Amino acid sequence: METVDFAALAPARHADAALILREALAHLPSAYNAPGEAEAEVAQRTADGDWLGHAALEGERLVGWIGAIRTYSHGWEIHPLVVAPSCQRRGIGSALLAALEARARGEGVLTLFLGSDDDYGGTILFGRNLWPDAVSHVAATEATARGHALTFYRRHGYEIIGLLPDVNGAGRPDILLAKRL
Ligand SMILES: CC(C)(COP(=O)(O)OP(=O)(O)OC[C@H]1O[C@@H](n2cnc3c(N)ncnc32)[C@H](O)[C@@H]1OP(=O)(O)O)[C@@H](O)C(=O)NCCC(=O)NCCS
Fold it and tell me: Which of 54, 61, 83, 131 sees the fewest Cβ atoms within 10 Å?
């Protein structure tokens, strides 16, 4: 497996990237399920001069990709990170994250951050009223048996820096994570 700059991919491969986006997030209500939605997301990202990405290839096959938006002078937002379902838990997500972190460090970025929704019951926050004092729930936040990307990011040094209650509907928060590079 190798990681390459997303910009080096032939445009024809963008359809593969859209398919991975759709399939990797298929378990989420917020997934790119509507016809053309995943394709539009890839088109929008790649047309955005503030977006950059890396792709993971196994031979000719695209197996995952990561992107980031240059949101602040020294802070990038990771969006998205997806690995093809049949290729998960083989180190591809970790390799993509490492490639992005190296790129970010090289460009002087100090903080990487992201939002990771729980709109399906992947953490103990699901279904709860987090108001008032939403931040008080951060310390106890854990994944449930359904699993959540939170576990992956924590393993790579990201910590929860905030919660956005109810942004995907009542009891369905976004979990904000960040890492100091
Ligand atoms: C999250 C994701 C990018 C990780 O990529 P990956 O290639 O599967 O991850 P790696 O193989 O590098 O790392 C695996 C480790 O991450 C953690 N991990 C990965 N996916 C996990 C999941 N669904 N639930 C719990 N832990 C998970 C575990 O610690 C795992 O180690 P283990 O297999 O020894 O238990 C990938 O699973 C994915 O695309 N998921 C669906 C989309 C998604 O949730 N993206 C993130 C949105 S913010």
Answer: 131
Question: Ligand 1 atom 17: the closest Cα is on which residue?
Answer: 152
**How many independent structural domains does the chain possess?**
2
Residue 15 has pLDDT above 90, yes or no: yes
180 shares a domain with 130: yes
Q: Tell me the average pLDDT across 94-111.
A: 98
Q: With 0-12 CB in 10 A as exposed, 13-18 as middle and 19+ as buried, what is 157?
A: middle
Return the closest-CA partner of residue 66 out of 122, 110, 20, 121. Answer: 20
CATH code for the domain of 157: 3.40.630.30
- Residue 148 alpha carbon, nearest atom of ligand 1: 24
What is the pTM assigned to this prediction? 0.96
For the segment 24-68, what is each residue's pLDDT rounded down to a tens digit?
A: 999 888 789 899 999 999 999 999 999 999 999 999 999 999 999
Rounded to a whole number of angstroms, the distance between the first and last alpha carbons of the chain is: 24
C-beta 122 within 6 A of ligand 1? no
